[in-house]
Write a structure and sequence with these properties.
membrane; cell membrane; transmembrane; 87 residues; Cell division protein FtsL; single chain; 0% strand; Cell_div_FtsL
Length: 87
């Protein structure tokens, strides 16, 4: 009876030790994945900030005016070209 109890305790101890080893390994794997995801998030945040700055630059009114003049040949109408229609 004592031998059976000792065997059960040794087996339980080994199973518990293997469970701890597995849990620590899983923790390390998940921690590495978390660090990689944090790095990817930080890179995406940097890209997002750069894109916001680029969008703000492209949408400035003087930039739009410059593109309209240079690429599209647009200009403000002269006063003699302006027609006012009244009801």
């Amino acid at each position: 009876m004592l031998r059976l109890l000792l065997t059960v305790l040794v087996v339980a101890n080994l199973v518990t030790a293997l469970g701890v080893v597995h849990a620590r390994h899983r923790h390390r794997v998940l921690f590495v994945e978390l660090n990689q995801l944090d790095k990817a998030r930080d890179e995406l945040d940097i890209d997002f900030g750069r894109l916001q700055l680029e969008q703000a630059t492209w949408s400035e009114s003087n930039r739009i005016d410059q593109v309209a003049r240079d690429r599209l040949g647009m200009k403000f109408p002269e006063s003699e070209e302006t027609v006012v229609i009244r009801p």
